[in-house]
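Supplementary Text 2. Reproducibility record for the structural model of the 205-residue chain.

All settings were left at their defaults, and a single model was retained for analysis rather than an ensemble. We include the record here because the model underlies the residue-level annotations in Supplementary Table 4.
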Amino acid sequence: MREELKIFDENRNEIGIADRSEVHKKGHWHETFHCWFVDKKDGIDYIYFQKRSDEKKDFPTLLDITAAGHIMSNESVSDGIREVKEELGIDVQFEELISLGVIEDCIVTNSFIDRELGNVYLYHMKDTDDFNLQKEEVSGIVKTEFNNFSDLCLGKQNKIIVEGFKINELGKKIVLKKNVSLDQFVPHQKSYLEKVVKLITYYIR
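Retained model, structure tokens:
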């Protein structure tokens, strides 16, 4: 299926529309939707990550933003909320999100240049939220204490403990708990991660 995205110049002015493959080949700036899940239990703040499916073309099995995706050329930023339902199976209204603004995020590999204007949001989980994962996209969900993730992003820790679950090839839920370093996350730009954790800190305190 052809996916067309709006493309922008370095000053965030819209300059046209291009196919997703061309956008990543030429490194055009484009809009994405990022939603970070947090909650508080027994006075401790937690942040959640998705474990990318083994089937993903890019960065399989790595940990990533709780829910994220591209905003198509015919969509508004608020339409990005569909990613939460599609990937995680959780019904969230756009009005429930806290906007953290637009944060630039650039990931460069041997096969593509991904220059994102990330429309970043924060979602405080409810007790009734229950993950129902889209197996082609997401193979698990883990969480960690937010302070630990913040320290990891700011270079104050080298490893943190994450725990949650993954779905194996038979569709069975398996408990997951392990030490991870930043190289086990999708390689988001350092400045992006630093801005995100500082903004989340502001909104959860």
